[in-house]
Design a protein that fits this description.
Layout lengths: L4 H25 L5 H19 L14 H33 L4 H25 L1
Protein backbone atom coordinates (compact mmCIF):
# COMPACT_ATOMS: atom_id res chain seq x y z
CA UNK A 1 0.00 0.00 0.00
CA UNK A 2 1.59 3.25 -1.17
CA UNK A 3 0.88 6.89 -0.70
CA UNK A 4 -2.82 7.29 -1.52
CA UNK A 5 -5.13 10.20 -2.19
CA UNK A 6 -6.47 9.91 1.37
CA UNK A 7 -2.94 10.11 2.77
CA UNK A 8 -2.31 13.27 0.76
CA UNK A 9 -5.57 14.82 1.90
CA UNK A 10 -4.83 13.98 5.53
CA UNK A 11 -1.27 15.31 5.32
CA UNK A 12 -2.12 18.55 3.50
CA UNK A 13 -5.26 19.06 5.58
CA UNK A 14 -3.24 18.77 8.80
CA UNK A 15 -0.51 21.12 7.57
CA UNK A 16 -3.15 23.60 6.35
CA UNK A 17 -4.89 23.54 9.71
CA UNK A 18 -1.61 24.01 11.58
CA UNK A 19 -0.56 26.98 9.43
CA UNK A 20 -3.98 28.60 9.90
CA UNK A 21 -3.80 28.06 13.67
CA UNK A 22 -0.31 29.60 13.66
CA UNK A 23 -1.60 32.58 11.67
CA UNK A 24 -4.50 33.13 14.08
CA UNK A 25 -2.17 32.81 17.08
CA UNK A 26 0.24 35.38 15.63
CA UNK A 27 -2.63 37.81 15.04
CA UNK A 28 -3.94 37.33 18.59
CA UNK A 29 -0.55 37.92 20.25
CA UNK A 30 0.17 40.87 17.96
CA UNK A 31 3.16 39.43 16.10
CA UNK A 32 4.06 40.96 12.77
CA UNK A 33 2.76 38.99 9.81
CA UNK A 34 5.01 38.51 6.84
CA UNK A 35 4.73 37.13 3.35
CA UNK A 36 5.13 33.50 4.39
CA UNK A 37 2.52 33.66 7.16
CA UNK A 38 -0.11 34.68 4.61
CA UNK A 39 1.00 32.62 1.59
CA UNK A 40 1.73 29.27 3.27
CA UNK A 41 -1.82 28.53 4.50
CA UNK A 42 -3.16 29.38 1.04
CA UNK A 43 -0.55 27.22 -0.67
CA UNK A 44 -1.23 24.21 1.55
CA UNK A 45 -4.98 24.74 1.11
CA UNK A 46 -4.51 24.52 -2.66
CA UNK A 47 -2.64 21.22 -2.23
CA UNK A 48 -5.31 19.93 0.17
CA UNK A 49 -8.21 20.86 -2.10
CA UNK A 50 -6.46 19.38 -5.14
CA UNK A 51 -5.91 16.12 -3.26
CA UNK A 52 -9.61 15.80 -2.35
CA UNK A 53 -11.05 17.01 -5.67
CA UNK A 54 -9.19 15.04 -8.34
CA UNK A 55 -9.02 11.30 -8.77
CA UNK A 56 -5.85 9.30 -8.94
CA UNK A 57 -5.20 7.08 -11.95
CA UNK A 58 -3.12 4.68 -9.85
CA UNK A 59 -6.05 4.18 -7.46
CA UNK A 60 -8.65 4.26 -10.28
CA UNK A 61 -11.00 6.62 -8.42
CA UNK A 62 -12.68 9.97 -8.95
CA UNK A 63 -12.61 12.34 -11.89
CA UNK A 64 -9.27 12.93 -13.59
CA UNK A 65 -8.14 16.40 -14.63
CA UNK A 66 -7.22 15.29 -18.14
CA UNK A 67 -10.52 13.61 -19.04
CA UNK A 68 -13.39 15.51 -20.69
CA UNK A 69 -15.43 16.07 -17.54
CA UNK A 70 -12.33 17.19 -15.64
CA UNK A 71 -11.52 19.74 -18.36
CA UNK A 72 -15.10 21.04 -18.27
CA UNK A 73 -14.95 21.40 -14.47
CA UNK A 74 -11.65 23.27 -14.73
CA UNK A 75 -13.01 25.59 -17.42
CA UNK A 76 -16.21 26.44 -15.54
CA UNK A 77 -14.50 26.89 -12.17
CA UNK A 78 -11.84 29.08 -13.80
CA UNK A 79 -14.47 31.44 -15.16
CA UNK A 80 -16.29 31.62 -11.82
CA UNK A 81 -12.97 32.22 -10.02
CA UNK A 82 -11.98 34.94 -12.48
CA UNK A 83 -15.17 36.96 -12.01
CA UNK A 84 -15.17 36.38 -8.25
CA UNK A 85 -11.60 37.68 -8.04
CA UNK A 86 -12.49 40.78 -10.07
CA UNK A 87 -15.42 41.44 -7.72
CA UNK A 88 -13.18 41.02 -4.64
CA UNK A 89 -10.58 43.42 -6.05
CA UNK A 90 -13.36 45.88 -6.90
CA UNK A 91 -14.64 45.72 -3.31
CA UNK A 92 -11.07 46.16 -2.01
CA UNK A 93 -10.61 49.30 -4.14
CA UNK A 94 -13.73 50.90 -2.72
CA UNK A 95 -13.11 49.70 0.83
CA UNK A 96 -9.67 51.29 0.63
CA UNK A 97 -11.30 54.47 -0.70
CA UNK A 98 -13.67 54.56 2.29
CA UNK A 99 -10.90 53.88 4.80
CA UNK A 100 -8.16 56.13 3.39
CA UNK A 101 -10.31 58.69 1.54
CA UNK A 102 -8.25 58.15 -1.61
CA UNK A 103 -7.90 55.50 -4.30
CA UNK A 104 -4.93 53.18 -4.03
CA UNK A 105 -3.27 53.36 -7.45
CA UNK A 106 -1.75 49.88 -7.14
CA UNK A 107 -5.17 48.35 -6.43
CA UNK A 108 -6.66 50.25 -9.37
CA UNK A 109 -3.91 48.96 -11.68
CA UNK A 110 -4.48 45.40 -10.42
CA UNK A 111 -8.23 45.79 -11.05
CA UNK A 112 -7.60 47.12 -14.56
CA UNK A 113 -5.18 44.29 -15.38
CA UNK A 114 -7.63 41.73 -13.99
CA UNK A 115 -10.42 43.15 -16.14
CA UNK A 116 -8.46 42.92 -19.41
CA UNK A 117 -6.54 39.73 -18.67
CA UNK A 118 -9.21 37.26 -19.75
CA UNK A 119 -9.95 38.92 -23.12
CA UNK A 120 -6.21 39.17 -23.84
CA UNK A 121 -5.69 35.49 -23.01
CA UNK A 122 -8.73 34.55 -25.11
CA UNK A 123 -7.26 36.52 -28.03
CA UNK A 124 -3.98 34.60 -27.89
CA UNK A 125 -5.69 31.24 -27.42
CA UNK A 126 -8.00 32.00 -30.37
CA UNK A 127 -4.99 32.88 -32.52
CA UNK A 128 -3.51 29.48 -31.72
CA UNK A 129 -6.50 27.83 -33.42
CA UNK A 130 -6.45 30.01 -36.55
Amino acid sequence: MGFTRKHGALMFGTVTLLTIINLIYRVIVGDELGFMEIIMPATFMVFFLTSIIWGNEDEKNGIYQDEELGKKIIEKSSMISYFTLIFIIFIAVFADRLINDTFNVLLLVILAVAMVLQPIVQFFVMRKYK
